[in-house]
Amino acid sequence: MSTTDDSGAPLLEVEGLVTRYPISRGLFDRIRRQPQLTVHAVEGVSFTVEAGEMVALVGESGCGKTTTAQTVIRMVDNDAGSIRFRGTEIGGLGARELRPLRREIQIIYQDPYESLDPRFTVRDTIEEPIRVHDLAGSKDAREAKVREAMVRAGLTPPDLFIDRYPHELSGGQRQRVAIAAALVLEPKLLIADEPVSMLDVSVRAGILALLDGLRHDGMGVLMITHDLSTAAHFADRIAVMYLGRIVEEGRAKQVVRNPQHPYTKALISVVPRRDPHERTVPQILKGETPNPVRVPPGCRFHPRCPVAEDRCQEIDPELRDLADPGHRAACLLL
Amino acid sequence: MSSETVIEVEDLHVWFDLPGGGELHAVQGVSFALHKGERMGLVGESGCGKTTTILAMMGLLPATASVSGKVILRGEDILASGDESVSPHRWKDISMVFQGAMNAFNPVKTIGDQIAEPMELHGVARGKEAKARVGELLELVGIAAERADRYPHEFSGGMRQRAAIAMALACSPSVLLADEPTTALDVMVQAQILELLVGLSQTLGKELGLTVILVTHDLPVVAQVCGQAAVMYAGEIVERGAMSTIFHDPRHPYTRMLFAATPDLLGDDEVLSIPGAPPRLDREIAGCPFRPRCDSAFATCATVHPRRLETAPGHEARCHLNDSIVTKAAS
Questions:
Q1: Quick check: is B146 in a domain?
Q2: Number of compact structural domains in chain B
Q3: In whole angstroms, how far apart are CA A242 and each of A77, A299, A307?
Q4: Contact criterion met (CB < 8 Å) for B218 and A60
């Protein structure tokens, strides 16, 4: 069932990914033959996630980070490019062929208040994926798997939580239940979409440490976040997205300490720091990210770029290797 | 520097009646004072009483709440006789940007009409005069005056938040309470809004200095824009003082642990969660409310509720660790 590892193929390899959403037109627009508009959510994104590695996709709302994640788990179909999981192309697979893969790639969401069924106990929630995938036959075997997943997710002792309903749990505990329900299938890749942004500061570190531990146990983690400080602390690598593209990518420390792309530089400069003495001079960009329906020609960042030149309006830069190994950026001026 | 005290909160308490009987003591003796043009961050975890505190200052709590204590605005206690004493000051002297205000605009009325509404209601301006004032306010928050005729859906999130701030400023208040004004915004737009709030505290038209209270769970935001900070826990301010002292020399373990739980962009220190959860506020708490989660608690903490102690001029904390220091200084 599970694909054997090809010689050194990365756990997840995304190449030239394109995902667009058509904007629905009303009858009136159709009669008037208004052109069909498209949201260019993801426009040529390439990255890899290795086993035992945490990669953070960061960027502002509308940059395409969540669509990228949804395309990787095949909730949304891609229009071009490839998604290879352990060496196997999964981009064109149908529902039946995808089924075994759904076990190996799991996702947890931002809001643990919405992602759990209020009428399910913790046991029901964690047991459901086992039933759906027909994994453990006997009741005892299922119970053992549920408890093991709870321990891995830090819901200990399991007896204390297993019969509770979501409303009897705190936000952090709910997120742990969601993680346990993902872990029970023993996935190879976990996608975490803003896993802590709804939680109180005091419990965030615990959830992030849990993800960090899973990574050390060999799982690949793709974290979607708008929080650069969290990404800098927990991820191995950071990919910064802007309007459907990765504009800079590298080791987490490289990207936050030595940003190269003008967008990353501006973004880093406005992240508030804990120490009031380290008040940065924020390089505040004017306006907001343009609408991904009308992507600017040339470099998509040029209308807001503080250092843009004439050629930036015409040439669309590719992500290129920089002098520092493993560090890439898409800017003509580098 | 003017050192005129604009607003002073003295021993503020708020209780909510619970549907099943009993009371929830949401705010427990909050006191602070702010000068003209000062910016204070009110921080803490959800449920610690931040929002209840500022709603009480506006006299906007529901009927199930009982309030005691004083809110002194330029020498007058505006809570002295309930709504009668607050309402003349609400919006005119003390104003508020509600959490999620940017999403609370009426979709079928123009932004300009909605900003003009409080002016007309309070008899500040009407008709042409109100319209001119709307234009000025929009310019003040960084929106072109002619966009007053636009509808909310034509504005981006950041612009709607600016418009919400303009609305709060409609009747020229001297104190602005902003509840999580940047929480749903992207970091670049957040920076724009924070820059605006700082600007407003420095100049307001020709006059100087709006006093701003920024309610947020985000310590780094306070560190970047506020000179003062008050950390709340279980309905109390557990530490208050200059932001730089709060960060560099915290006098309450909760403050220190809150910073340790917050990842810093360039920091290398391990990010540590705070074990446990805040206590329930519907029952009497013996000793220090933070004791079960505290890493430095000792015997006294279990039995004696810590008093507010001044640890340095202008800096106070509620923690028994400071008892010996302060006693020494006094003897």
A1: no
A2: 1
A3: 21, 11, 17
A4: no
